[in-house]
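Q: Fold this one first, please.
A: Sequence and structure below.
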Amino acid sequence: MNSIILELSALENKIIDNTKIYGLEIHKKISEMLEVEDKNDLRVSNIFGEFFKKRIELEKNEKYKIRITTKTQEKLLKLRDQLFQLAINEENIVIGEGIFQLAGIITKNDTWCGEYDLRKEVKNLDINKFNFLKKINLKIVTPILVDGKSIFGFEKILEIILKEVESKLEEAEIKVLKEKILNFITVKREFYREKKVNLLNNNIKKVYIGDIEIELYGYYGEFFLVLLQYLRYAGIGEFKEYGFGEIILKS
């Protein structure tokens, strides 16, 4: 997985209806540029700071940021080449009702940028490493959806996480893996905030975001941390391609 941030300058004042989720329009545009056929090969954010708003009010000459994540570095390099060409030619980037020009590409940001190879990281783990100990704060930035409903509660979220990575792991027995992980972590605190929203054409009216403080130890504690690091890029749950299921980690 590979992530960058695009900085876009709005060319006109515009009010955009965000109840349909502007991330869908962003995903559609970038998919066209990259000729992506499988939506799962590309993940985008909404405009930073605008996810929960009913309307996005673009102001002329103001700069806005979006995060782009591709499964392969090849796709990311192709996108960068196309964007640089657009910038050289001063061509517009039309995303739904928004009209922009590229103002910059950010590749260095500890929270939102970088690359991650899950299989490589899992392979590099030392099963005999017993002294691993780390405390983290798992922050749910945008709602995790399952069957159109916002999910909260660590054990439920853990099940979703394991299903997300099941096809990429050699240990395919999710139930057994869940028990092993739970034996090597301690949930210190869970805090969730309920938000009244109007998302996906009013189909989602209530969501939960929040923080989970966890202590990880031993091989399976470090193994779980590797999964979380991967999901910082891949996202969790339904509609993750469009900016749902966004998590960040803080020590």
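Q: Good. Now the second chain.
A: Here it is, same layout.
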Amino acid sequence: MFWISIILGFAGGLGLILTNVIMGSPPTIIVTLPFLVLLVLPLRKLVKGYQIILLFLICLIPMDVFAVIPGADNSTTLFKILFPFVFILFMGDKLLGDEFHMPLNSMDKWLFFYALFNCILVMIAVNQLQALDTMRRYISMWAMYYLFSRALAKNSWPDWTRKAVIFSAAVSVLFGLKASIDGYNPFSELGVGGVLVEDVRITGASGIDPNAYSILLIVALLWAIVCSMEENDKFRLFYIISVGLILTGIALTYSRSAYLTLIISLMFLLFKVRKLLTPTHIVVLLLLILSALPFAPDSIVDRFETLFIAEQRQSDSSVQRRANYYNVAANILKDHPLLGCGPGNFPVLHQMAKYQDAPVLVGVPRMAHSMYLTVITESGIIGFTFFAGFLISTYLRQRAIYKRLQGRFNFGLALMCSFTALLVMGLFLHLQETKYLWLVLSMTRALDNEGDREEKLDGPGQVQGIKA
């Protein structure tokens, strides 16, 4: 069977070439996919530690410039090559019975119905091509959730996952610090300041938007803070150093939404551990904050002034843009209240005079810059209900994990804090295509299942691989 699969796999590769020459690119995947699967499946015997590949991909998220293959276009990255490879390996193990079965929980069910509903919406979307393109990206994120939540659920992989997230974020900040010192960000053309800010907005070693980069750092920061509080952890010094580096990186993104998100998430963290805080702790913390304010760079203060002043390359201020998004969303919901306008179609309708109240923005496609506005306008009230159910179920699972794990500072607390940060940042960004959102969700699902398995075997206690 091994050699038959190899021969058929190479036959699929030949078919890949022939169909690309004769028929063009569209039918290539359909024609050759069964053969390529047969080629990959025998490799499962040779590649058993594919979780290491997943950790490698996680480390590349805040440093995605290193994922670009030399000589290829920017869209051809290691993510698009390695992720499908690992996914097929995992599914091969699952189908052949080598992987443990993880039953669907409430998170999985809510997400399944939301995903299925969006697939149906493609057929009735205002612009079906735009909906298909958006669904392609959404499906990749949902596949990431499924793979990470299953493949990284066993043994010590959740613990190594959080180390990979913190390490990669800290290293990426070092690249950002160099860019800030040099006064030029070579990784992203988006890393420039507003009209009142001359400083470089760092994006690590990635080409993503500084605001999107900041949420990656906030998640890593909260995980590092909680990990640094754990007792008898030999990596504590690493976590403490990472906290300082990542906090500096967040400041240098000059992201107003990131500052607000960080404040709220830290307040949530303090609330969760309030019983451990003495009046002395609170006084010292307040004094540190108040003493640091006079030393805040003027550029950060200037950045907040751009809330009401148009930035470079913009004809309107941030407040005006966001107010306009809500007006357009309200107009869209009048015509598409239950089913929405279809995945990825908010920018399409944003530029239409029928939905746009500002004449200067007619013909200008813009994202909603809000996860919630995007969901409710593109999938309607029904889709928003499924999505809200998914988010609520996630929080309830995280709270159960936090109570089940030993110690006041455990990974359950880190997940709750980072999820809170993502929910807040969702007010300002479209996060459904943000990998760290699905990473946090998948780790929640992984620990929820691992905790159930541990309780069945040993009774209530600490999840394997996660230190209290």
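Q: Anything worth noting on the second one?
A: The two ends are 46 Å apart (CA to CA).
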